[in-house]
Amino acid sequence: MLSRDPFRLLITPTGIDKGKLHVHQLLIVDQNAEVVQGNLRPSAETWLHIPIVEETGADVVLHTHSSWNTLASLTPAPAFQISGFEMLKGLSGVTTHEHRETIPILENSQDIPALSRVLRQTLRDQPEVHAVLLRGHGLYTWGCDIFEAQRHLEVLEFLFELTWRGRNLEA
Ligand SMILES: [Zn+2]
């Protein structure tokens, strides 16, 4: 997030390997996902970054498609629940391992404007969440800066894996 008034969001373009991305290829978009600076095309998922920065107040949003977060997103429930780990305290505002973290799972859709509206409503209904999953797709998490967003990503990836592997202990 570069500025809120006017709304200016720095975002990666679509179709370019993130590892080969040059800083001059980054785009600046407004609240309607219109490019105000840059020559490339923004990802359609820009529509999902916008409600997150608007509803949560976060300045940085990270979106990843890892094996563990995609597996977690396949849980046949409207949310993935994590509890019982000290590492939960790596999520901002969580002060005890007795916390139960809920990560809403939204049904994936190629109708991105519709998905954007569902995401916005989810964040209004559950303002305490630190992340959302898209089913069969991946994770969105965020933070007040890149350090907090990165920490949330690393903590959640760890917890997705541990929670999933831990299910085998009960068998
Ligand atoms: Zn994606």
In short:
The chain has helices at residues 46-56, 67-73, 112-125, 146-170; strands spanning 3-4, 7-11, 27-29, 35-37, 60-64, 79-83, 100-106, 131-134, 138-143. With 171 residues, it is of the alpha+beta class.
Question: Would you list the SSEs in sequence order as H and E?
Answer: EEEEHEHEEHEEH
Structural class: alpha+beta
Low-confidence stretches: none
- CATH fold type of the largest domain: L-fuculose-1-phosphate Aldolase
In the CATH classification, which architecture of the largest domain applies? 3-Layer(aba) Sandwich
Average pLDDT, rounded to a whole number, is: 95
The count of helical stretches stands at 4
Radius of gyration over C-alpha positions, nearest whole angstrom:
16 Å
What count of domains describes the coordinates? 2
**Largest sheet geometry:** 5 strands, mixed
Bound molecules: zinc ion
The CATH superfamily of the largest domain is known as Class II aldolase/adducin N-terminal domain
Global morphology: globular
Q: Which band does the percent of strand residues land in?
A: 15-25%
- Read across the widest sheet, the strand sequence of neighbours is 5-9-8-7-6
- State the helicity in percent bands: 25-40%
Distance between the termini: 45 Å
Q: Give the beta-strand count.
A: 9
CATH class annotation of the largest domain: Alpha Beta
